[in-house]
Structure formats: structure tokens, C-alpha cells
Design goal:
With about 500 residues, this protein is α+β, with helices and mostly antiparallel strands. The chain is about 30% helix and about 30% strand. It has a six-stranded mixed β-sheet with strand order 1-2-6-3-7-23, with helices on both faces. A five-stranded antiparallel β-sheet has the order 18-19-20-9-21. Helix 5 runs antiparallel to helix 6. The radius of gyration is 24 Å and the shape is elongated.
């Protein structure tokens, strides 16, 4: 503890640091959920915790706000837990290590910072930071902890497993929630307010394979150093997808030399653009030099194409040599390569009216098991029909080779409300505080606002947050000054909701 102890608002940074000391990757949320329960008990606040580990904490209105409509504050408590290869941590059990770095606006390669000043950033050593969405949790706890902040009755909703399909929000019982306005602090671009989002669905494919013992020449190779990023907000950056790159290399090898796959594995989450992928193949010894040449030349072509988005991409080749292994048969190898290299991926269609992404998908994870190769995608679209059309494209390809798919974690899109009261109040507060006009727009990433808006008729929702760059990667960092400005914005907005 102590990296953030000298920063204001003090309780916000203290809670964020406490939160970071507890592992809370998606699917591993029991301990962090219990932490919230213990907090509520210590403050004498009404709360409930469900079987999925969602937590809702209630706080009465402050003086003068008793007749105001209740407000829902909402964020998710899980994070995408990713680490660099050389980091000796088990993110299921170990906490992350925070540190402060200095960077000016010249680091803004995506043009997201605009006119806002940034100097110090909080990041994590060799892991994801969890600013997405730990900062929302810190804000909510700081508000619940305070006796001085003016606000209507609050219903603070802490959801789980947002990063793997918004499972917590989807299952949450909202029957006791009375709020008419929802403030969601799960957006990462300061000065951009989100009032609509795409719907999404996870698609998991299982391709059956057979393996057989063989003793040829084994070659292992690995692609890493890719930029990666969030498969919603960064999909229009057209960054390299490591799995798709590997499929392209394997196809070229298969077309030119006799080879079989032993394993192909990469990616960590369906909603993260994969930055690392490892493959092992077998070839005849007389073809080893030609195979290595093809691997190097194919990767060089790909790297040249992606030199602006993935300048640090690299490939490592290891000649294992002659070794008895269990490799995929010829038919299974062909099915795997064709599936991997021909799957749709990335932006599928743009919304011409809004000049934004309408439909996309991300091949996020591939794993080779004993009897199958597993592919996991996240498909997104603002149009339900377009989303399901992409699902059927994946189904058609995988079923050709006797595979099957299942879909889960589906969520509807969130239609913008042109008459949103909270959007106007938040916008006015922003202008009063900072003298700048924020952008109000829809986003291609999925947001829990969509689920709550579909569950609760008449709910007026908006999403915002401080500047957090490179989420879902080990380069993730969150602006200290932006955290402070966003805190001011929250307090002024709550004060206006009288």
C-alpha cells in the first residue's frame, strides 16, 4: 500500500489501491465481492449479495434530497487479468503492483486525449491495471464512505463478469431498484459521454480432431509483442490479431511443404485482441529449412502490413528437432488451418450515417485440446440481424469440418435517447467545470447500460469515465488528473439531481 497515498481525492485513490490488492479477474470475484459486503457492514449500509457475487449497496438521500428520484451508480468489479510472459505472478491469487509513470500528451497515439492535460498516470508492473472498471468501484465506495457529499438516495450496483459477457448484469435481480437515472463509470475516454452501444454475443466453436504418434522434425514458433487492445473500442484501429496472423502463416506452410500441427494456442479473452500465439508443427527433416524460410518470409510480409499499428511485433522460432509427439492427422490439420485462416475477423461493416463501426467480431482465444480445437469469438453489432448473420457465417464454416458452435453471454444493444435528462445535466456540469463541450455518442463496445435499460423501463442511462489507455493489455494506464476531474464531475452532477 502507499503508491497512491499522496493523491487527491484521497479516499478514491485509497479505495482503488485497496481494490488492487485483491485478485479480481473475471470468474474470480468471490473475495472482492465479500470485500464490498464487509465495507457495507462497517458503514451500517443496507446491502445485498447474490449467488453470482453481484453486490448492491443502498444509501439514503442527504438532507434536502429526500424527495428526489433515486440514482443508480454502477460499475463492474471484474477485470481482464493479463500479464507479461516474464511476470512471476498467479493472477488468480496474487495482487497487482501499482506504479506511477510520467507521460505527456505526445503519448496520445489514438487522438483520444484532445485538449485535456495529463502528466502522471497510474499503471501496473507487467500486468493489466484494472482501471476498467476498478475506478468506478473506487468512486462509488468514496461516495458511500462520505458524510459530506450531497446526493439523492443511491443504489450502488457492483456487477461481476462483465468482461466475459456481462453475466452479472444479465442475471441481476433489479426488482428492488427504484432509480430512474443510471450513471455508469465504465467509459475510458475523458470528455466523451456514451448514450448507446452495440449488442454482443460470445461464440465458442469446437472442431473435432484426431491425433496420432509421429516422430518427424518438430518446429515451434511464437508471435508476440503485438499491440492488442479492447475488441470493441480498438477494433477500428485494425491492429494485428495474432491468431489470424498465425493462421495465415500455417496456411502458407501447408500449401508449400508437408506438415502437421501439434498445437496452436493463443489469446486470453474473447474481448481482447490476442497479442501472443504459440504453435508447434512437424515436418519432414528434409523440409525444415524451407519451412523456416516460409515462416520468416510470411511473418515479414504481415509485419510490414501492420508496421504502423504493431511496430513491436516479433516472431521467435525454435528448432526442437526429432522428437516423438502426438500430432493432428492430415485431415485435422487441414480443417484447423482452413478454419483459422478463413474465419471472419475484425470490422465487418461500418455505419455510414454515424461513421462508426456497425458490426465486428474478434477471434480472441484458440486452444488445442486432446480431441478438439476450441475457438472463441465475441461478435458485436448495433443491429441484431447483422450480429446473428456473422454467427451463422462462423457456424457454416465450422460445420463443414464436423464441428459445432454454442453461443452465450448475449446482450442487446442500447438505443440512444435523444431526450436524455441525465445527458443534459452531465453535459452542463462538464461545461461549467472545464469550459469545454463533451462529445455525446454511441460506442461499439458493449456496456451494461444496455442490459439495465432493457430490464428497467424508462431508465435514463449514461456512461462516462476518466482517461484509461490500452485497457485489456499490460500497457494499461489511467490518468491521475483525469481521475480528479471525473470526480469533480460526479459530485457536481449528483448535486444537480435535486
Amino acid at each position: 500500500m502507499g503508491v497512491l497515498k499522496d493523491y487527491e481525492p484521497k479516499r478514491v485513490f485509497e479505495f482503488f489501491e485497496e481494490f488492487s490488492m485483491i485478485p479480481h479477474g473475471s470468474g474470480n470475484t468471490k473475495e472482492i465481492s465479500d470485500y464490498l459486503v464487509e465495507f457495507a457492514k462497517s458503514k451500517g449500509l443496507k446491502y445485498r449479495q447474490d449467488d453470482l457475487n453481484n453486490v448492491v449497496i443502498f444509501k439514503d438521500a442527504t438532507e434536502g434530497y429526500e424527495d428526489s428520484d433515486a440514482v443508480i451508480l454502477q460499475g463492474h468489479i471484474d477485470m481482464v487479468a493479463v500479464k507479461d510472459e516474464d511476470v512471476d505472478k498467479d493472477l488468480e491469487k496474487d495482487h497487482i503492483d501499482l506504479e506511477i509513470i510520467h507521460a505527456d500528451d505526445t503519448t496520445d497515439v489514438e487522438g483520444l486525449h484532445g485538449e485535456f492535460k495529463h502528466d502522471e498516470w497510474v499503471t501496473a508492473k507487467g500486468t493489466t491495471l484494472g482501471g476498467d472498471d476498478g475506478i468506478a468501484v473506487a468512486y462509488m465506495l468514496a461516495i458511500l464512505d462520505s458524510d459530506d457529499i450531497k446526493h439523492p438516495a443511491l443504489e450502488c450496483v457492483f456487477t461481476v463478469d462483465e468482461e466475459i459477457g456481462m453475466l452479472g448484469a444479465d442475471a441481476l435481480d433489479v426488482s428492488d431498484l427504484k432509480g430512474k437515472i443510471l450513471l455508469n463509470a465504465d467509459s475510458q475516454h475523458e470528455g466523451k459521454f456514451t448514450v448507446g452501444c452495440a449488442g454482443g454475443v460470445i461464440v465458442e466453436c469446437n472442431l473435432p480432431i484426431n491425433k496420432e504418434p509421429i516422430t518427424p522434425y518438430v518446429i515451434e514458433f511464437k508471435i508476440d509483442g503485438l499491440t492488442g487492445g479492447h475488441s470493441g473500442t480498438a477494433i477500428n484501429q485494425y491492429r494485428m490479431n495474432g491468431l489470424m496472423a498465425m493462421g495465415r502463416i500455417l496456411l502458407k506452410c501447408f500449401q508449400n511443404v508437408g506438415m502437421r500441427i501439434i498445437t496452436v494456442d493463443g489469446g486470453v479473452a474473447d474481448n481482447a485482441i490476442p497479442t501472443e500465439v504459440e504453435t508447434a508443427i512437424v515436418v519432414l527433416e528434409e523440409n525444415k529449412e524451407e519451412t523456416i524460410k516460409i515462416i520468416k518470409e510470411s511473418f515479414a510480409e504481415i509485419k510490414e502490413e501492420y508496421k504502423n499499428t504493431d511496430p513491436d511485433a516479433k516472431i521467435t522460432i525454435n528448432e526442437v528437432g526429432e522428437q516423438e509427439v502426438r500430432a493432428l492427422g492430415d485431415g485435422s490439420t487441414l480443417a484447423t488451418i482452413i478454419s483459422l485462416s478463413n474465419m471472419p475477423n475484425g470490422v465487418q461493416r461500418m455505419d455510414a450515417k454515424r461513421n462508426s463501426v456497425e458490426t465486428s467480431l474478434n477471434l480472441g482465444v484458440v486452444r488445442t485440446e486432446e480431441d478438439r480445437v476450441n475457438f472463441k469469438f465475441l461478435v458485436r453489432s448495433t443491429k441484431e440481424t447483422a450480429k446473428m448473420n456473422v454467427v451463422e457465417q462462423i457456424r457454416a464454416l465450422i460445420e463443414i469440418f464436423g464441428g459445432e458452435i454454442k453461443t452465450y453471454g448475449g446482450y442487446a444493444g442500447w438505443e440512444p435517447n435523444d431526450d436524455s435528462k441525465i445527458a443534459k445535466i452531465l453535459k452542463d456540469s462538464f461545461i461549467e467545470l472545464f469550459g469545454k463541450e463533451p462529445k455525446v455518442e454511441s460506442v461499439h463496445a458493449g456496456l451494461e447500460c444496455g442490459i439495465f435499460s432493457n430490464k428497467m423501463e424508462g431508465l435514463d442511462s449514461i456512461s462516462f469515465g476518466p482517461q484509461v489507455d490500452d485497457i485489456h493489455t499490460t500497457k494499461e494506464k489511467m490518468s491521475i488528473l483525469s481521475i480528479q476531474r471525473c470526480w469533480e464531475l460526479i459530485l457536481k452532477t449528483l448535486e444537480k439531481l435535486k
